[in-house]
Amino acid sequence: MMKFKENDTLDVFIEKLDHFGNGLAKVENQYIFVKNALPKETVKIEITKLKKKFLNAKAIKIITPTVDRVSVPCPYYEVCGGCQVMHLAYFKQLEFKKEKVVELFQKFAGVRDLEIEQIFSGKQFAYRNKVIFHGKNQMLGLYQEKSNDLVEVENCLLVEEGLNQIYHKIKEYLKKNSDARIEDLTIRKTSSNEYMLILNGDLNLKMFLSYLDQFSLKSVYFNQKLVYGEEYITEDIFGFKFRIYPNAFFQVNYEMMKKLYQVVMDYYQDKNYQTVLDLYCGTGTIGMLVSSYVKELIGVEVVHDSIIAANQNQKINQLPNVTFLEGKVENHISKFQNIDSIILDPPRSGLDSKTRETILKIAPQSIVYISCDPATLARDLKELLEDYTIVKVHLVDMFPNTYHVECVCVLSRR
């Protein structure tokens, strides 16, 4: 086996992409993961890190590029950690994500020949309605990849234009006011152009708000306190109103969120279920959207801001058959019996072992599992598939130009 050192350079052939969008090469039985390299390319690389079982490297010259490589419009792509596959043609990004899900289902769940119903896609750029910037001294920008060092970007191409405009204005304010400091800044936006700012730091609040008066801000939080406007902003989804509080989770790609929710609604509309559980329900969006198709909907969520929003959303949408409970799913789930179906939308870590075990004991007729991480989804499926079969798998490209993909997996009890 060849012995490599950091900063060594060599030419390699890229065989495939790994699940994080890195090119994978193999030299003398040594696996090498190469950032920004694509399958079928010959690449000159530089070794950046030595591991026991593999090496990390960066591409320093693409010797023979593939036809699937595209020019990258973002000048910060090499240093910012937000995107991983922007250099890959978009239709190939979608293929990569489908192949990734198929491989993960086979590896972790033992599912062979998985058939993916479809992958929904939309805008490749300007799709995010939420962005988090970080500050240091007079700088405000994004973190470099795997670092707390800042990249002071001019624009983020993934972010909707209105958010970039507010970011520009705040950067301008910092340059004009040398005593002002912003540690972090979150900007959220709804489809009806309601804006929320959440920031921490040290600044003259009256002067700062006056500087942003052109933007018709709906809500501003400063150092964990509401200092301007309403406590929430409101989103409309298929005619339902949903309040969004500062710490409440809400999908960041509005158009793709609607595609995902439509898949779930379509599944439930003709089932005539009596009782459905909506676990990890967030602000109650999915549960309320399917509530008209079921007799009773019960949601469970641990984040306090989300439960406040969910209960308010239930009232403003006048849905008497919907109830929300605050707390950890694993602490509530054993209380339930006679459940027809369970909706799961857990965090990236997936389900804990107690929840998986209790779901199998409850034995609902069906499970609709929504996941932002197909690896943990496949891990959970390995246990759930003891009693269930996969009916459908839909994918939603919620985050173009990244390796992430959203999955909707429908299971039916054997």
Q: Distance between termini?
A: 49 Å
Architecture of the largest domain in CATH? 3-Layer(aba) Sandwich
How many helices does DSSP assign? 9
CATH topology of the largest domain: Rossmann fold
Percent helix among the residues? 10-25%
Which percent band covers the strand fraction? 25-35%
Q: What is the number of E strands? A: 23
- Largest β sheet strand count, sense and barrel closure: 8 strands, mixed
Low-confidence stretches: none
Present the secondary structure layout.
Elements: E1 9-13, E2 16-17, E3 23-27, E4 30-35, E5 42-50, E6 54-64, H1 90-109, E7 118-120, E8 130-136, E9 139-143, E10 150-151, H2 161-176, E11 181-189, E12 195-202, H3 205-211, E13 219-222, E14 225-229, E15 233-237, E16 240-244, H4 254-268, E17 275-279, H5 285-290, E18 296-301, H6 304-316, E19 322-326, H7 329-332, E20 341-344, H8 353-362, E21 366-371, H9 374-384, E22 388-396, E23 406-413
Parallel strand pairs: 4-6, 7-22, 12-13, 17-18, 17-20, 18-19, 20-21
Antiparallel strand pairs: 1-5, 2-3, 3-4, 5-6, 8-9, 8-11, 9-10, 11-12, 13-14, 15-16, 21-23, 22-23
Helix pairs in contact: 1-9
Question: Could you give a short description of this structure?
Answer:
The protein contains nine helices and 23 strands. The chain is of the alpha/beta class and 414 residues long.
